[in-house]
Write a structure and sequence with these properties.
The protein has 421 residues and is of the alpha/beta class. It contains 14 helices and 24 strands. It binds ligand EPZ. Ligand EPZ binds next to helix 1, helix 5, helix 6 and helix 12.
């Protein structure tokens, strides 16, 4: 298993490009199952999770061709509607094939995604919604077996805001008979990007980005070409890298448009964040203060502060001036980076879903272990400012969601290298 070796102390400066959004690309790749015509996607990030999803779709019979950051998927042949355990266990987002398979083929057999480090992450809302649309669904031997002659439109209400739940139900509804209304829908930008791609394929969707999404079913969807939106969490993570090192960094190919809650907190911490827009491109520049001020955060569904940025802000607060309170309200076990940050000298007290972080002047480099994708990012951020060397082990977690992170950080002046552990 690889590790990253980081020597702290460099102030990050310069410019780096942000990749396409993992959490938009994953559902949009699955949307290819909804049509017998080719779907071409641009700005697809080169990530392990994307590779896993393409492997799953290929195993089902989807023809996949890649050229740089463009991917063309063609589900025009025989499709085997099965998502096996050995692939689903490595990537929970595989559940996103369930809705499209049911809608297009009327059957699906998808392994229950296990929990993961950050929580149990059940999929009961996905199943409940599809059953309301007429699917017969059984769960046995660790698999979801689903059948539906034709899904019918329904009024759906999810018990909590669920991003992939909303996405699964929205994709299923595109080919259902009649109108589906999803209430309490997720408002995340990635849901909007998926809706835009589905609409380009001929779906009739309104309300994406609000908590009520209406979908009028159509007999079939066509092919389309769609550009994946920029990754707002990668953007936020690199803004944090600039912030924690007292740097001055420009991120290109992205905007602050979907990061208001995060940008507000970075400005409260003392950073100057500038959105730059030309007719040709958008970028974001962050100029950090010599030392950050502590900022308290509370995660919640979009447009509130995203849970996927919580770990990164715990790293910022670990070396900021003052004390911050971090409340995690989405996942039940998303503080595993705290004990690793404590190994670097951070002063963090955990009480249930609340962490109290008192900033220290310096962290000390040490060997730490990544436990999940965003926890890994927070350890890298801490390593950028810790005294001496920090070895971050098990960075396969990091490779799931950040394209070439060490190359991008090196370009900004960080001292970081990958080693075989
Ligand atoms: C998506 O996960 C993202 N993944 C996650 O990003 C992100 O953290 C999460 O949304 C919240 O924003 C993708 O989009 C691929 P949820 P998802 O369903 O859809 C509970 C990353 O780092 N719930 O919105 O799985 C669930 O347990 C990843 O890129 C149910 O109880 O999250 C959680 O507590 C991590 N039953 C809450 O709802 C259900 O049927 C929100 O989960 C569904 C969800």
């Amino acid at each position: 298993m690889d590790k990253l070796v980081i020597t702290g102390g460099a102030r990050l400066t310069g410019e780096v490009a942000v990749s396409g959004a993992k959490n938009a690309a994953l559902p949009i790749l699955c949307a290819s199952l909804l049509s017998s015509e080719p779907l071409t996607l641009r700005n697809v990030p080169a990530l392990n999770d994307i590779a896993t999803m393409l492997k799953l779709l290929t195993r089902m019979g989807v023809t996949v061709t890649r050229e740089g950051d463009s991917v063309t998927l063609h589900a025009g042949g025989v499709i085997e509607p099965v998502a096996p355990y050995e692939l689903v266990k490595t990537m929970r987002a595989s559940i996103l094939v369930l809705g499209p398979l049911l809608a297009r083929l009327g059957e699906a057999r998808v392994s229950l995604p296990g929990g993961c480090a950050i929580g149990a992450r059940p999929v009961d809302q996905h199943i409940k919604g599809l059953q309301s649309m007429g699917a017969e669904i059984g769960v046995e031997h660790g698999y979801i077996s689903a059948k539906a002659t034709r899904l019918r439109g329904a009024r759906l209400f999810t018990d909590m805001v669920t991003v992939t739940g909303t996405e699964n139900l929205m994709m299923a509804a595109c080919l259902a008979d009649g109108e589906t209304v999803i209430e309490n829908a997720a408002r995340e930008p990635e849901v909007v990007d998926l809706a835009q791609c589905l609409s380009a394929m001929g779906a009739r969707i309104s309300g994406a980005g609000t908590d009520v999404i209406r979908i009028r079913g159509v007999p079939r969807l066509a092919g389309a070409t769609h550009r994946i939106m920029p990754d707002r969490i990668e953007t936020g993570t690199f803004l944090c890298a600039a912030a924690i090192t007292g740097g001055d960094v420009r991120l290109t190919g992205t905007s602050t448009g979907y990061l208001d809650a995060v940008v507000d907190k970075l400005m409260d911490a003392g950073c100057d964040v500038q959105a730059e827009k030309t007719p040709a491109a958008e970028s974001v520049r962050l100029i950090a203060p010599a030392r950050l001020k502590a900022v308290s955060i509370r995660t919640a569904p979009y447009p509130a502060f995203p849970t996927d940025m919580q770990a990164q802000f715990m790293a910022l607060n670990a070396v900021a001036e003052g004390t911050a309170v971090i409340r995690e309200t989405i996942f039940e076990n998303r503080f595993m980076h705290a004990v690793e940050l404590q190994r670097l000298g951070a002063d963090i007290r955990i009480d249930g879903n609340t962490a109290v972080v008192s900033g220290v002047n310096r962290l000390q480099g040490a060997t730490v272990m990544a436990t999940d994708l965003r926890a890994s990012a927070s350890l890298v951020l801490a390593g950028l400012v810790a005294d001496g060397e920090t070895h971050v082990e098990r960075i396969y977690h990091l490779d799931r969601g950040y394209e070439g992170i060490e190359a991008k950080l090196t370009r900004l002046g960080a001292t970081i290298r990958r080693e075989k552990a």
